[in-house]
Fold this sequence. Notes:
mainly alpha
Amino acid sequence: xxFFNKQHIDMSxxxxxxxxxxxxxxxxxxxxxxxxxxxxxxxxGAAYGTAKSGVGVCAMGVMRPELVMRNxxxxxxxxxxxxxxLIIAVIIGTSVSANMSIYNGLAYLGAGLSVGLSGLAxxxxxxxxxxxxxxxxxxxxxxxxxxxxxxxxxxxxxxxGLITALILVTK
Length: 171
């Protein structure tokens, strides 16, 4: 029993020392990890969304080639997710410095993970909806508006991460 109480005190002291220090060797590391996470995860989502919906566009284009340009919207929307990650990665990358606080480093990590992981989720959603949606609209054109609405809600997931990341970066 006494061992665990001693360990708890040591960990809480360590955490308070880390958070109170004005500069840490780890702060820049966390900042750069946020920068990398923003770009890596958002681009993974964008790549998946582009590939998955692009396969649907190609399959649909064999039967209805006149609808290819109209149904390329999911591919464009997936690409925008990558731009969200790029925006935050550039902001974080230009803000990281050697003498920044651990608070800022962790805020940048949170911002990067926020936009990156929400971009990954949005890209996966856009890809799945885009693939099924363009195939369905080739057979029934009345489904086009419904597909666009679903894609907008999927894109909003990435936008939520971008907004949260911008708030965290400006703290």
